[in-house]
Amino acid sequence: EAGVAQSPRYKIIEKRQSVAFWCNPISGHATLYWYQQILGQGPKLLIQFQNNGVVDDSQLPKDRFSAERLKGVDSTLKIQPAKLEDSAVYLCASSLASGGANEQFFGPGTRLTVL
Amino acid sequence: QQPVQSPQAVILREGEDAVINCSSSKALYSVHWYRQKHGEAPVFLMILLKGGEQKGHEKISASFNEKKQQSSLYLTASQLSYSGTYFCGTGLYLTTDSWGKLQFGAGTQVVVTP
Question: Where are the beta strands (DSSP E) in chain A?
């Protein structure tokens, strides 16, 4: 079974530039998550999709971050414009369904460096 | 609200045991445990549900104390491969407000030496 795919793996940009990350979840997984993991910290949920609808984006900085999940499969997370504090690893995860009883499968992440 | 993990770090010799704790101030439905090696994605270890039994994965087991809203992860007879950062993720009941999202602790770094 293929895992969660993410690209790019690494990205270096200057502040105020834009960047986009792509995620392809495990086939059949209805729930998709984007996490931000700052060095030395645990993952922080940015946004959660159930199929192609957003069910939680309470911690997403909506003035600069946006995300969409097309046709309930792939997802894109965008930052525009980027700030220095956005430097982090952005993890995508998926699970069969929402709810705390479902295992989340993580992708390899995208390491973003903002200069 | 983010759960609190302790200790922040632990150094073990191969074969030694360790306990990692995860505490929450809220009533929990589930506790997830993940291990992350440097530069890699978190890997699922186990889920404990309210009212469920103690779980195990190889020589790693965990328990969930519902009264204290606390979970403990037990590393028994540690191996070099156990090195990494262990995160607990706590889940509330599935509601229209929570959707069962996980709040992750800051992690416990485990180093197992020969």
Answer: 5-7, 10-13, 19-24, 31-37, 44-50, 53-56, 65-69, 75-79, 88-95, 105-106, 110-114
Give Cα A22 to chain centroid, integer Å.
8
A109 touches chain B (CB under 8 A): yes
- Between strands A110-114 and A10-13, the pairing is parallel
Query: Is the CB of residue B110 less than 8 Å from the CB of residue B6?
Result: no
When CB atoms are compared, the residue of A48, A55, A103 closest to B47 is A103
Task: Measure the CA–CA gap between B66 and B92, rounded to whole angstroms.
Answer: 12
Between the ranges A94-108, B7-21, B38-52, B97-111, where is the mean pLDDT highest? B7-21
- CB nearest to B44's CB, from A42, A103, A108: A103
* A5 secondary structure, DSSP code: E
pLDDT digits (tens, 9 = 90+) for B56-114: 667 899 999 888 889 999 999 999 999 999 999 998 776 655 667 889 999 999 999 99
